[in-house]
Specification:
The chain has 622 residues and is α/β, with parallel strands linked by helices. It contains 16 helices and 28 strands. The protein has three domains: 172 residues, Ribonuclease Inhibitor (Leucine-rich repeat, LRR (right-handed beta-alpha superhelix)), CATH 3.80.10.10; 133 residues, Phosphorylase Kinase, domain 1 (2-Layer Sandwich); 236 residues, Transferase(Phosphotransferase), domain 1 (Orthogonal Bundle). A hairpin with a 2-residue loop joins strand 23 and strand 24. It is globular, with a radius of gyration of 27 Å.
């Protein structure tokens, strides 16, 4: 019976492929069309650091490849290759990845033209080819991307006119064409923000200075000798002379004010979930919009049995949607504050743009007058914190090899947030409880951007530090100011959690000295007693040299002076075996020179902090 079922399934799959069904990427011969397209892309790119090494032409499933994100139904949905020193050209084969929602190739050295086949990607929402060396014209086929929200082609050498087909796209949020060699007239582009600065030929032809201005829709200033178009498409002729009367200027201010008020009301009406009545196709950037009723049902009315974790940002529930997809639903805490709706919308949009294998992808959102909920994919292996003590057949689930992979994956995710994401995101609470594990135990950084997301409700005076004692950088404790180096410190503590198997906040409880993990590790390292650091559950199944290197990376990353900490990209290179010796010697030299080795402990910073520290777990397994 099993063989009959298998043959039936295989015949059915071949029939679906033969009729061109959109539900299968396999040809009758078993070739995955998405694999073919991705290999074509790889072939046309020069990859100096072998980032695409595991892209295998013989594979039938590209979802496990680096820099590839797949949708829940198994199709390639995101291609994220930013800041990888890639050169070469963009293969026309990219047009065969018809389920792509996001293409991120920014900050490379890619040349050649933008292939016209890109217009076949009807589901594409984000296209970022900025900061490359692309030439030739922007293809008219870009106007066929009906779901496009974000278009970034800035800082290239593109020529020719801006495609008039862009005027067909009504859902654009951002179009950045700045710093190219574009020419011709400026078509009507109904984007919230349009950037064309740095295209002198457009400015010269337009005979105006609006090329240096970033202006939002619906305020539109076309370049055709003062002729403008209202949102309804009716032409208005506006002559603004130098030295215009005060009454005219006042009238303009009133019009601008009314337009901004309309925009505020429009955004508010789309964003709010009023009586659970809405268009199910309404999206915000990449995100699907869910009703509160739908999420309440998926979590069995937010049943306590479905709680995956609690923290400072809210409670995370396991949910099952009507189509069977298992999700994690984060119900944000205390979010019935007055105002902040537009700010919330903007920040959620920005978080959704961060697409990386080692970052938790935001799938959707829900907003009502009293509720804010975020929807993420469910992580079956929970968090690093929750698995550090787990065993299978008498062996730790997180063996030494997996702990090293977790460290590398987390570092790659943070490098993306700090150096490849636009705008950059500071996590502010890097720790084992916020690093989630997918089905393959790959590290996935969660809760990034949420500290920033909720900050608009705080006063301009910092009264609380978001984070957990033992993980918070000294300068953040002292001043309340965070930076990328705050995350580097937190990552160093995470490495110590992976090494010791302990929570940083567990140390010092019940003692008068208030010792914390970092002080304890420094002392044992100085005394040459690394064997006392290692998690006893690992026993002798580890590499002593790798242990020494990881401890050193952790100590360099947790230097009290943030200026002396490396960037996350440098931390990643050290974990991969490049540059640790130099950084370690430099760090030791600075400590010796400044007599810092015994001058102050991390626990002293905690004790002296004038800020109220929220020692909380910000997330649990999802």
């Amino acid at each position: 019976m099993g063989i009959e079922k298998f043959l039936f399934w295989k015949v059915g799959l071949m029939v679906l492929a033969l009729i061109g069904s959109s539900y299968s990427t396999l040809s009758p011969t078993g070739v995955n069309f998405e694999v073919v397209a991705l290999i074509a892309i790889k072939s046309d790119l020069n990859d100096p650091y072998n980032v695409l090494e595991n892209w295998d032409a013989n594979s039938v499933d590209p979802c496990s490849w680096r820099m590839i994100t797949c949708s829940p139904d198994g199709y390639v949905s995101a291609l994220g290759l930013p800041s990888l020193s890639l050169s070469g050209t963009i293969s026309p084969g990219i047009g065969n990845l018809t389920n792509l929602q996001s293409i991120l190739l920014q900050n490379n050295e890619i040349s050649g033209f933008i292939p016209t086949s890109i217009g076949r990607l009807e589901k594409l929402e984000t296209l970022d080819l900025s900061n490359n060396q692309l030439t030739d014209e922007i293809p008219e086929s870009v106007g066929d991307l009906k779901d496009l929200n974000y278009l970034r082609l800035n800082n290239n050498s593109l020529t020719g006119p801006i495609p008039g087909s862009l005027s067909k796209l009504e859902g654009l949020t951002l179009v950045d064409l700045s710093y190219n060699n574009l020419s011709g007239s400026l078509p009507k582009v109904s984007a919230r923000t349009l950037k064309i600065v740095g295209n002198p030929l457009i400015c010269e032809q337009a005979s105006q200075n609006n090329c240096s201005v970033v202006y939002p829709e619906p305020l539109f200033f076309p370049p055709d000798n003062g002729k403008g178009y209202s949102k309804s498409g009716t032409k208005h002729y506006v002559a603004i002379a130098f030295g215009a009367s005060f009454s005219v200027a006042f009238l303009i201010l009133i019009v601008v004010g009314l337009v901004l008020w309309w925009r505020y009301r429009h955004n508010q009406q789309i964003f709010f979930d009023v009586n659970d009545q809405y268009d199910p196709e309404v999206r915000l950037g990449h995100l699907r919009r869910y009703t509160f009723k739908e999420l309440r049902a998926s979590t069995d009315h937010f049943n306590l049995k479905n709680i995956l974790g609690k923290g400072g940002f809210g409670i995370v529930y396991k949910g099952r949607l009507s189509n069977g997809t298992v999700v994690a639903v984060k119900r944000l805490k205390d979010y019935n504050a007055v105002g902040g709706e537009i700010q919330f919308q903007t920040e959620v949009e920005l978080i959704s743009l961060a697409v990386h294998r080692n970052l938790l992808r935001l799938w959707g959102f829900c907003s009502t007058e009293n509720e804010r909920l975020l929807i993420y994919p469910y992580m079956p292996n929970g968090s690093v914190a929750s698995r550090l003590k787990d065993h299978v057949n008498g062996r730790p689930v997180l063996d030494w090899s997996r702990r090293k992979r977790i460290a590398l994956g987390t570092a790659r995710g943070l490098v993306y947030l700090h150096e490849q994401c636009d705008p950059k995101i500071i996590h502010r609470d890097v720790k084992a409880a916020n690093i989630l594990l997918d089905e393959d135990f790959e590290a996935v950084v969660g809760d990034f951007g949420l500290a920033k997301l909720l900050d608009h409700r705080d006063s301009h005076v910092t009264t609380a530090v978001r984070g957990t004692v033992g993980h918070i950088a000294p300068e953040y404790l002292s001043t309340g100011r965070s930076s990328e180096k705050t995350d580097v410190f937190g990552f160093g503590i995470l490495l110590l959690e992976l090494i010791t198997g302990q929570k940083a906040v567990d140390f010092g409880r019940g003692t008068n000295q208030k010792a914390v993990m970092l002080d304890w590790v420094k002392k044992l390292h100085e005394d040459g007693k690394l064997n006392l650091l290692l998690d006893r559950e690992l026993k002798n199944e580890y590499d002593r040299m790798e242990l020494e290197e990881m401890v050193r990376v952790a100590l360099v990353s947790t230097h009290f002076n943030p200026c002396h900490r490396p960037k996350m990209s440098e931390v990643l290179r050290m974990l991969e075996g490049d540059g640790l010796t130099e950084k370690w010697e430099q760090s030791q030299s600075m400590e010796t020179t400044r007599h810092e080795k015994h001058s102050k402990r991390y626990s002293d910073f905690v004790e002296e902090s004038s800020l109220v520290v929220e020692a909380i777990e910000l997330s649990g397994p999802r």
